[in-house]
Amino acid sequence: MHKLITVNLFIYLIFCNSLYADVKIKGDFNSFGDTYIIGKGNIYITKKYIEGVKPEEYLKLAKTFDVTETAVKNFLKILKKKQVPPENLDSTFRQIATRHKKLLSRLKQFNLFVDPEIKELRKKAEQAINNGDYDKADIYFKEAAKRLLVCANHLIKEANNCKLSAAETKVENGDLELIRINYKAATKLFKEAVELVPDGHELKKSEYQQKWGDAARTAGLYIESQTALEKCLAIRRKFIPKDDHVIPEILNRLGGLYNDTGEYVKAEIMFKEALKIQEIIFDKNHSELGATLNNLAGLYLYQKKYAQAESLFKRSLEITKKNFNNNHLNFSACYNNLALLYEKQGKYTEAERLYKKALEILKINFGENHPHFAASLNNLALTYKAQGKYLEAEFQFKKSLKILQKIFGDNHPNIAHLLRSLASLYKLKGNYSEAESFFYKALKISIITFGNNHQYVSSILNDLGRLYMSQGRNTEAESFYMKALEIKEKKFGKDHPILRTILANLAELYKTQGKYTEAEPLYKRIIKINEKAYGKKHLSVATALNDLAILYYLKKRFDEVESLLKKALEIRKIELGKNHTEVATVLFNLVKLYEAQGKYAEAEYFCKRSLKIFTNAFGKNHPNTRTTFNTLLDLYKFQGKYEEATFLSMDHY
Q1: How far apart are CA 187 and CA 219, in angstroms?
Q2: Residue 39 included in any domain
Q3: Considering the domain boundaries, does residue 613 fall inside one?
Q4: Which of the residue ranges 294-298, 368-372, 510-514 has the most confident prediction, judged by mean pLDDT?
Q5: How many angstroms separate the CA atoms of 387 and 368, rounded?
Q6: Angle between helices 329-344 and 306-323 (to 10 degrees)
Q7: Are residues 529 and 495 in contact, defined by beta-carbon separation less than 8 angstroms?
């Protein structure tokens, strides 16, 4: 048995004698004349075929490796050129064949491309492979890859341009929907536009996010609006200098949204930051500065910081006068906000005049079927309501409601707000069934819009509690108050000033039931909350002092009553002016205290002051005016001043 050199090659190689003349094969082998057998009878090196390889051998190799005969010839040329030792023939041939097939596979990758340069490079690479020049084929492939990258980048750029164009079209359609007052449809289009904007175009994305946020806010989609505007602000803070004018623009929008949703601390932060930037980059009479002043003043107005609000409103109005004609929308905003301030201060005649001016400007700019016009009607209605002009108030509320329902449908949060206003009006008129129905409609809309645990839902639950309390349905009233309180305590904590209204109503409920022990700690808690939040001289503190004084009056703790009422009176005179209706309310409470103590002279003095304020503010037929008038008549009678009583009646009527 002969020992064989083991080289596991499943091909037949036939070389001329000169090819391996100098090759020294190490190891045992079999010799059959002029033929050397290497491996298991798989390689034949012979001296008989001096001119080359038999044709049938090419075919066998081609089938074995799934390549062409031409490829096999090229493989052999390489082996010959590199003078590969016989013991390495198998592995080397396999390596060459494998590389060849990989290169062919790479060729297929370029079959789908129509770029002329890529097609030409593919052709050259194929020719190089066929010639066995694999290094050159590699070079062509690398050049083709570079060209592919150029083409890919071009395609990406084209695709991005297409996306940007599609996004712009969405925005244009969204703007059309805004003109049609289809705010939800516009919101959807602006959101889709944002999603189309490709990476690398962040500022364009922020531009569309602002539109998305504005439309969503108007549509009452506050969570969606907040998402859009906060993302917009984040992008602009990252890519735009902090003193650029577009930063205050989005800060104002976010501040307005936070104000809408009751996030007053966040709103103030936004407005103040916007104002700080604008005071640096603009002159003192720039219109954008005026708009921010107006926004911040509106926030202070809600917080009952009337002196600060009035100062900012008037400064904003002066800026508006220097920049715009008399029918510009900015005038409408200024008049509306100043009117609201005057209404809170009891200056109803001036408030009504300004609301009507605002309405005229809105009508000129938008017509009557616009949400801004409806909102201004609502404000005018509230002024009528405050004056006891219930028929006028109801007419304006319903007119506003009809406009908004036409624009938004029946489930918009602005609809809920108007339904609350109408329900409150019906409650004042004693139409409890209608009031309850409207409150529940508002509650349903608010739960759909905000969810069960939103503070606006809590506010309507509180409204229902007050309605039931006025009907003597005390168990139901307490239940609704407690639900309302629980929602706000979970959201804001137990010491937040937003709790004071519910706490005051709950305390009032206990007071009317004679549960003075339960009521007193609630009133004291309100005072503590307000003093901590606003200081001891704030109007909310005065209200709480007045309420606690009434409780002590019922408990006949008269010395404490007088002290509390005088503190409340002093605060209100300072903050509101001596002729405000809230000042008149405290004066009247002092009247009742002195009357109970038999101090009729003191009671008469304060009653005259109170009556004068109520008459000037509300007129002679308002409930507050009539009650005060009748009290003064009684005081005259208690003192035997019948002649004064007669003259008072003749003068008043």
Answers
A1: 8
A2: yes
A3: yes
A4: 510-514
A5: 25
A6: 160
A7: yes
Query: What's the CA angle centered on 212, arms 209 and 218, to 5 degrees?
Result: 140
For residue 18, give the DSSP letter: G
Last residue of a domain, one of 57, 90, 123: 90
- Rounded distance between C-alpha atoms, residue 330 and residue 290, angstroms: 9
Residues 523 and 503: their CA atoms lie apart, in Å, by: 7
30: β partners: 37
State the residue for tokens 């094969």: 25
Cβ-based burial of 555 (10 A; exposed 0-12, middle 13-18, buried ≥19): middle
User: How far is the C-alpha of 187 from the C-alpha of 182, rounded, in Å?
Assistant: 9
pLDDT digits (tens, 9 = 90+) for 385-405: 988 899 999 999 999 999 999
What are the phi and psi torsion angles at 473 (to 5°)?
Answer: -90, 70
> Is residue 389 within 8 Å of 428, Cβ to Cβ?
no
Residues in the chain, total: 653
Is position 50 within any domain?
A: yes
Residue that terminates a domain, selected from 42, 72, 90? 90
To which residue do tokens 């129509």 refer?
114
- 554, 511 Cβ separation under 8 angstroms: yes
Q: Give the helix/strand (H/E) hosting 37.
A: strand 35-38
User: Is residue 185 within a helix (H) or strand (E), and if so which, with residue range?
Assistant: helix 183-196
How many domains does the chain divide into?
A: 2
Structure tokens at 397: 């509320």
Residue located via tokens 């009751």:
262
Total-model pTM:
0.55
- Among the ranges given (126-135, 482-491, 566-575), the one the predictor scored with the smallest mean pLDDT: 126-135
CA angle 162, 164, 169 (to 5 degrees): 95
Strand partners, 31: 36
In whole angstroms, give the CA distance from residue 614 to residue 622: 8
Q: How far apart are CA 58 and CA 64, in angstroms?
A: 10
Range of the domain at 7: 1-90
pLDDT at position 32 over 50:
no
Q: What are phi and psi of 32, to 5 degrees?
A: -125, 80
Model pLDDT, residue 523 = 96
Pairwise CA distance, residues 353 & 349, whole Å: 6
Residue 212 forms part of a structural domain: no
Distance in Å from the first CA to the final CA of the chain: 145
Q: How many CB atoms lie within 10 A of CB 132?
A: 19
Per-residue CA distances from 507 to 469, 503, 512, 522 (Å)? 12, 6, 9, 6
Task: Give the type of residue at 591.
Answer: V
| Alpha helix positions (H), 539-599 | 539-554, 558-576, 581-596
Residue 31 phi/psi, 5-degree rounding, is: -120, 125
